[in-house]
Amino acid sequence: MKRLPAPYGLLINREQSISFSFENKAYQGLAGDSIASALAANDQWLLSRSFKYHRPRGALTMAGQDANTMVQLPSNPNALADKEPIAEGLQVMGQNYSGSLENDRGSILGLFSRFLPVGFYYKAFFKPRGMWEKWVKLIRKKAGLGVINQQLEPEYYDKQYKFYDVVVVGAGPTGLQAALTAAVDGCEVLLVDENPILGGSLNYARLDTEGTLAKEVRDQLILEVNGNSNITCMTNAMVNAWFADNWLPIICGKRLYKVRSKQTILCTGALEQQAVFHNNDVPGVMMSSAAQRLMHLYGVAPGKTAVVVTGNDDGYANALDLMDAGVNVAAIIDLRETPKATPMIEAAIKRRLKIKPGYAVYGAQQNGNHLSAVEIRKVVSQGICAEVGETISCDLLCMAVGYTPTYQLACQSGGQLSYDDNSAMFTLNNLADDLQVAGSVNSYWDLGNCLEEGARAATIATNALGFTQADIPEAMAKESQSPNHSWPIFAHPKGKEFVDFDEDLTIADIINATKDGYEHIQLVKRYSTCGMGPSQGRHSALAAARLVAAATNKTVAETGVTTARPPFAPEHLGHSAGRSFYPARRSNMHYRHLEAGAQMLQAGAWYRPAFYSPQADYGPSLDSAVCINNEVNNVRNNVGLVDVSTLGGLEVRGPDAGEFLNRFYTFGFVKQPVGKARYALLTNEAGVVIDDGVACRFSEEHYYVTATTGGVDRVYQNMLKWNAQWRLDVDIANVTSAYSAVNIAGPKARQVLAKLCSDIDLSKEAFPYMGVREGTVAGIPARLIRVGFVGELGYEVHVPQQFGEALWDALMDAGQPEGIKPFGIEAQRILRLEKGHIIIGQDTDAMSNPMEVQMGWAVSRKKPFFVGGRTISELKKKTPSRSLVGFMINDTDGPTPMESHLVLNGEQMAGRVTSCNYSPTLGKPIGLAYVQPHSAEAGSQITIRANGGVLVTAEVVTLPFYDPTTARQEL
Amino acid sequence: MKLLTCPLNGQRNISEFTYGGEYHPMPDPNTTDSRAWAEHVFFHDNAAGVVTEWWCHTASSFWFLAERNTITDKVIRTFDTSEIFNERVDFKVPDAAEKQS
Amino acid sequence: MTDYNPLLPIAPAQGNRRSPLYRRHVDLQAKFEQVGDAVLVSHYVKPGIEVLLAANLGLVDLSTMPRTGFKGAGAPAWAASQRVKLPKLPNTAVTQKDGSVVAKLSHQELLIVSNIMGSATSIDRLNREHLNREHSNKEHLNREHLNREHSNKEHLSKQTLAPQTYSLPRADSHSWLAVTGNAAAEMFSKICGVDLRVHKFAHNQVAQTSVAKINGVILRHDLATTPCFYILSDITSTEFLWDSLLDAMEEYRGAAVGVAAMRSLAANK
């Protein structure tokens, strides 16, 4: 392990050595190292194999911005080796090879690359039909990226909200200055950076000929930021998207921070771009910034002999840095014919650097899996080189040919990126409100300009927030000198000039896509997959745009770049999932059900007992159907108790309460007598049945209305919405949770209830069917409703929520001599089906009108208005297309149909079953089904296609199946 | 995630709200013709531009109205329903049936 | 309404009114106490330790404590006539002389929670007064009803009625939990989208929002210098909310504590 001396190696701790392995070979690194930097210190440059041709790849950006460094960790595929810190004992493997990383049998694919043309998937595998299914297995095997560890233990990920006045994204010089200026009294500032330390380019770039300025500026700015209590710094934190109204998801460790910012300043900097030439992907070829990161952040010399290819002064700064670090710089290849003499170039000349102006790197040569030499040639015209050149031996090629702004977040906010072909400069326009860009993302490169722009953006932000009323300085003049060379792209007869490293796409691939007719940049992207790999076009977008522009005779400005959607960087599924919340609602009697052996099921958020399987009574292996049938029989013959706490409850009170219900439900309620309940059917404006319940009138101005378990919240919201328009003098309250409720039903219900209810006369005469009363049950204040959902003598008892368990206990105790047993919703469904009652949502669908479901009787024709009334009167004029009827299956040998089984008329669909169960009371299957009107008469035979395609004949019967004279429920 | 300002509860994440559809006045159900009624119930303008919408703050069940530009997705303002509905609405008894049930 | 035998040890399920969390408390080996009608957790571990826990981050179940609500165009004026000090703005609260807290949820809706001593005198009185009023209204209406039947004039005297006040069964519809301590706001930021930091969300401020996907009312009501947030939310989801809160609190070493710790902190002037 070789390291440059301090102050090189800002991130590493030389005192703390860490052992890890790569490709099963042991390595030593230092605390603070990334996997890639630690391997580089051990002269291991090859990190992975490319996606398509399995070409050897090494570090390109050293900033986590490319896919070259993807490695396999035990818990995590596709980890970025230049971001991922090493850890003691960490086992790292390469990816995407067969055999070994050093010797990949799959790399032979490169030799056949002319058989893998652009659009290859579309062209090669889709004919004949079905071929793709065969090919896909082979392709997936060849082209997989990493392996998921399916034995992995789940880890705890979490989410957290944060609130700031100003969020500054990027802690380079511009961001540091912006944060400092924004941190006025009372202004809470968040400064966030994806790197482990603040400083951005100040940590590795050379800004002056001496190489001292960056450190001076950095130390000063960071000192001030750290000393400012209004600034919170988050490092190792990725702002992974911009969402509406400055909602910034920030990923840091195992947490997704949901940051709401009032003013956002993007100081996201710029991404250095590669030169495009033959074999530009060979390990040893890297961005100049990557070489500087290796030296300054990790203390690793990026090579022994370097060549720098440049189109700007940064290449010279890079060369000076390399020399200072003891790297032999063989030559600077300057794409410019006559570079302007600047202090940096003069310093390079003074240091006797060999400069080749007007030259390009035409191709790279490799020895094994590493760079061994470059061929340089004179540039003749745009993209064209002289016929001959010279070869320079080197093991490092640094590319400094320009940058693209890190525009992704700005564009997600609606910003538009434009490029000026003449100046080779980018601009960002149409940014969201309350969002600004500053620094190199906005094409300012000079340090002084960047600091001024950062301060300016911050002042605009604090003014907008009302913290300051400062004069906003003029924007700095646009810089005249772009660091972007306009055409660092040189085609080679042997190709392999990579535009997109992720997808192994070369110049020819992009040109051929346009030749295949895909001229628009968005189509080129989809056809060629350019920019669709893990690095999302960070390094291919500009080169591809230039090539498409040239091939289609347009400017780059006209061609544009493709959209950059969130997320900016890959994120773990755990970050999106976070802590899981599955709300659960439990009735106050929940544990009594569990104690009685209930099998619970979830209906929405509610837990409800499906049926009870009490082991003491029936033994452990009892069939659920037996349990359910026993429950049904006990209600029919004795008395049963069911928890109906989940039923919706709405208080409708006030002088207009009756009028309100008259308008809201289909029935009439104004003249409903006090002390009576009335069925309440709800339709929407389209006349579709959407809910039902009963309205209990407890006084002149007080109705207690029930609603379905799943529908009550929507019913309540609808009630409020309508009355926001009608302005009736009525109060509506959702008291669903405020009441625990049971239905005690069966011929012996009165007998049991009478033991606990001294202040209500329960006699048939005093408290008839559909009566409602207030009183006490077992000393608990209660509302009693005589309803007949299950078709027996029954009372719904509604008590304040926290009394539910006590009520349950009292009734179960009191009913013991009568043989009271709890019953679940499965038994309740059978009981109501026997009685012919429909369940809204099960026996109705999004088209069901009241007439179809035989509820015409519940629609008042005498009201001036009710919701759905007009549509229902229109529907009545039409011939009905279907009818919900009861059916019975007399031949009990065949299969029992199930919900959604089809009713057939010959070969044609004629309807469907909505409910069907074996009826213990009738001894045969019964059900409800939609049928065509001509089969709706009692006595009609219908054909149902049951499981396995078996045709079952059923007889249409008049509802209800059970107790048509209602003698039992009116007992 | 968008923010929406509830006139009662202030600015909140849009996930705290329920959308209630576009607001358009209901034609008189007793006099309007079938076509106009069908358009009211089944057809929606889906206009590009500023529309008025119903929104409900779910936690407080508070309904209000919002003017939103459907092109820019900018909410121009939110306001109390009393701004539009400021008096009690009553419906005339149709001639055919004078008595309420 | 409920009969307690003062000779028996206090058990969470001895009365008819039971917290939905009482089994959780028994599992945590809680010591219970009785205040008026309510059985609630006094402490789980040593009261002295719980004060320290609560000052950092504590979760208290107050679900059996008195609370009520009134709503309607006449509610504020009626409450004022009952010597209730009213908050000026919706989503703020005012502490009453007896320590109970009156919060305004909208211009026409009040939520009233008792002091943590559980002395419900003012809440009981308000409920009683309202019930009496309802009764006399009902009688009045029945007379009107009869008059209308005879005279057949539908709208005869409806106009003369005062604006209405309606009671809301807050003690039954909503559970009442308290989150105490200096880490409370930070913990809330993991499960609630409203900024509850102490310098952004004042003492006696109210937010109607979602906590761990459950809709509820958050009322900040400090215990002397210790931040404290009441959560009133759907009573049938209480166990889910309790478990979610304890889970979110773990990272800050939060714990369930009894009402005794709250009282100690409140006395810590």
Task: Give keywords.
heterotrimer, B: 101 residues, Folate-binding fold, four-stranded antiparallel beta sheet, 1 helix, 6 strands, globular, disordered C terminus, C: 269 residues, alpha+beta, Gyrase A, domain 2, 8 helices, disordered N terminus
Mean pLDDT of chain C: 89
Instruction: Determine the N-to-C terminus distance of chain C.
Output: 36 Å
The CATH first-level class of the largest domain in chain A comes to Alpha Beta
Q: Please, how many domains of chain A?
A: 7
CATH topology grouping of the largest domain in chain A: FAD/NAD(P)-binding domain
Count interface residues per chain for the largest interface.
A-C, 46 and 52 residues
How are strands sequenced across the largest beta sheet of chain C? 10-11-12-9-3-13
CATH class category label of the domain at 22-69 and 113-119 and 169-267 in chain C: Alpha Beta
> Oligomeric status of the shown chains?
heterotrimer
The CATH H-level superfamily of the domain at 22-69 and 113-119 and 169-267 in chain C is Probable tRNA modification gtpase trme, domain 1
DSSP, total strands of chain C: 13
Instruction: Give the helix level of chain A as a range of percent.
Output: 10-25%
* Main beta sheet of chain A: 7 strands, mixed
Low-confidence stretches of chain A: none
CATH overall fold name of the domain at 22-69 and 113-119 and 169-267 in chain C? Gyrase A, domain 2
Q: C-alpha Rg of chain C, in Å?
A: 20 Å
Helix content of chain C: 25-40%
Structural class of chain C: alpha+beta
Q: Helical region count of chain A?
A: 24
Which geometry of chain C do the CA atoms define? globular
